[in-house]
Amino acid sequence: MLILEELNHSFRTNNNNYYLMFTFVRRYIVYILNNVLMPKSLIFLGLKVKNQRNSLGLSQEELAERTSLDRTYISLLERGKRNPSLLTLMKVATGLEISVSILTKDIENSGSSSD
Question: What's the Cα-to-Cα distance from 90 to each of 21, 80, 85, 100, rounded to whole Å?
């Protein structure tokens, strides 16, 4: 991201047209990364987290409190927008009152061809 910021500064100071073009390209790259290349296994994991949270009758805020994570992180995780570390998965599983192995069961078979 540092390179993007340096390019952003140089384009902005040199020519407004380059800056506009750079801004468009940067937004397009972020869109592709977030919406096209997101592995299906993360979406599957997020659905499992959401389903378990709902079965316990927990809100995202309550799960966030149990796990010491931010509510927005829980939201992003449930939508498949975050790739949690093992330690984070352990926190989430504990907060959901299940094991990591149950939480991640069948993720390999979730139909992901981009993993």
Answer: 42, 17, 9, 6
Domain membership of residue 111 (yes or no) is no
Cα angle 78, 61, 81 (rounded to 5 degrees) comes to 20
CB atoms under 10 Å from CB of 19, counted, come to: 17
pTM of the model: 0.65
User: 45 and 27, same structural domain?
Assistant: no
Q: Which domain holds residue 7?
A: 2-35
User: 2-28 pLDDT, tens per residue?
Assistant: 555 655 565 555 567 777 777 888 888
